[in-house]
């Protein structure tokens, strides 16, 4: 809620999309913020659903804001929800780091298929995933695998750099725009009105071109969400910081010259052990 860039973008999109008399479903309503904003935008009836006990706090907030006559809250899994009417708008802030880390999209799609009218609107309506090469010594050496190059109280820990790189853990955090050293590749363009549950799990290759001489220390990933026709929520390094920031994927440092191309292989999969996590595999072909 305190992420103003995120929250105000959703508020503007709701104001644009929700019309007087609309019926709205808010999946993963949390504190009920988007449900209440939909009611204030003119919706005749709003249903908010959440599995956690935050729904009790949401009910108190709805009452405190005199919206109890238009906002109904339910506790339970959104995937099982079958309303007795179709809704005009399905709004959900299901986004996580690199868009899909919180693994809420499956429930959103189930709720969409059961409850959204054929001409209904999804908010967000579209999500894109982007990658770019990064030259950032601070990220790599202070917050990433390069940390182990420094001795620890006179002891040599350098072998742990390769071990940490092999673990392949991305770090959510701010990547400065000046650290980007290549153009941007879009690896996914997802239409939320028609997407299936497995559509985010893509693989392929993309070509990045170095924009300057650089030492690539990893790759930055972020998402761009089209919330409504006139509102875009862009979490790239060039935009104001959000609570998602970017995802930094550290990589063996690699020197490149301006104009040099980097063939980047990518693969996104469901994490088999932790369903709220996302497995991202990146590889660079030797040249």
The radius of gyration over CA amounts to 21 Å
Mean pLDDT score, rounded?
Answer: 93
Count of DSSP strands: 14
- Uncertain spans, ≥5 residues at pLDDT below 50? none
Gross geometry: elongated
Largest sheet report: 6 strands, antiparallel
Indicate the percent of residues in helices: 10-25%
- Helix and strand string, N-terminal first? HEHEHEEHEEHHEEEEEEEE
Terminal residue distance? 46 Å
Put simply, the count of helices is 6
Look at the helices and sheets and give the structural class: alpha/beta
Description:
- The protein has 287 residues and is α/β, with parallel strands linked by helices.
- Helix content is 21%, strand content 36%.
- It has helices at 4-17, 33-40, 54-64, 105-115, 137-142, 159-167, and strands spanning 23-27, 45-50, 71-75, 87-91, 116-123, 126-134, 171-173, 185-191, 203-209, 214-228, 231-234, 246-256, 261-270, 278-284.
- The strands form three sheets. Strands 6, 7, 8, 10, 11 and 12 form a six-stranded antiparallel beta sheet that branches. A five-stranded parallel beta sheet has the order 3-2-1-4-5, sandwiched between helices.
- A hairpin with a 2-residue loop joins strand 10 (214-228) and strand 11 (231-234).
- The longest helix is centred in the first third of the chain and has 14 residues, at 4-17.
- The mean pLDDT is 93.
